[in-house]
Amino acid sequence: MPPLTIRAYTATTALGRGLEAQARALRERRSGLRRNDFAPLAPGEPPLDCWIGRVEGLEDAPLPAALSQWECRNNRLAWLSLQHDGIVEAIAAAVARHGAERVAIIVGTSTSSIGATEAAYTHLHGEPPRFASDPGLPVLHTPHSLGAFVAAATGLRGPCVTVATACSSSAKVFAQAARLIAAGVADAALVGGVDTLCGSVLFGFNSLQLVSAEPCKPFDAQRVGLSLGEAGGFAVLERRDDEHAAQGLELRGYGESSDAHHMSSPHPQGLGARLAMVDALARAGIEAGEVGYLNLHGTATPANDQVEALAIAGLFPPHLHASSTKGWTGHTLGAAGIVESAYALLALERGELPGTLNSVEPDPGNGPQIRFDNAQHSIRYAMNNSFGFGGNNCSLVFARA
User: Fold this and answer.
1) Which of its termini does the chain have fewer beta carbons within 10 Å around, N or C?
2) How far apart are CA 172 and CA 192, in angstroms?
3) β strands within 259-334, DSSP E
4) What are residue 97's phi and psi, to 5 degrees?
5) pTM strictly above 0.90
């Protein structure tokens, strides 16, 4: 595929706001996980006994008055994430070059603004039941709340798409952007993803017996489940031109698959995961041995880590540095793709390769590619894996131009 220049990128997680906060915490091996203090909406019920990656200060960061009709936790985090690392300036530059109608918005989420919907129904009163206050815009209670809000917040008027494919959502946005630009529908794209904590997320995953009562330990022999988190991130992509042909960061390839093995479990031999990775490498025009860092999906659930480890061992040589960063942030669901792409891009820029936090005893099924310790290497190519329920898989290849 023709490379796409990454003009700017950012991430906001439980580690802090913007790239410097992410890089510092990764380097210092300082987790953002904390004991769950995200209380359910029903009064009197204790919080679920688990650890979460909660973004500090969202409760005290209302949207600007001009955007107040979009008020909800998810859109607050989207707005907060947009303000860092030159994203606003990169959007303005893309609009100046191409016009607002030629810059697409493609964002990913899994629960979007469902927290606002939960709140509206929790406070029903009277007979027949009525909402205690105005529940807000109808679109606020749909998955497209995020895309519609970002369009309103940025003024972009190109194609606007919200991708909701579970935990692969904000990885697949890169693939959609590449296709829209290649087809001539857009000249640039703002891609990203946002997901926030809510009762449906915490209790839904707990009902599947996937939530750990301790901080998650990806690829550890004693792992028992995941830690949930919230996050937001964005990137501005554009066709590569002569000015940027030999500098900066690029999206070089993507691969997608849907193995459809089971509603919530991956294919036991990792066939869908492998297909996505092979497809991404082929589009990038590189061999597996050229990848210097791979950010794994690595949720710390027993089945998912085992299957991903199997796929990695069968595809990559032993010298690959592969790791999961969910011990730092928790599993941020629909935002995992953009956040962990940001970590892959940081590895390319700085040569700082994160290990796998909290994990001590490697699972016997791990290949030598899966690393627990941080490392320092200059690399040319980095990858990110994002795998969702239903075998909905996406892998991305990034490069230094």
Assistant:
1) C
2) 10
3) 291-295, 321-323
4) -80, -40
5) yes
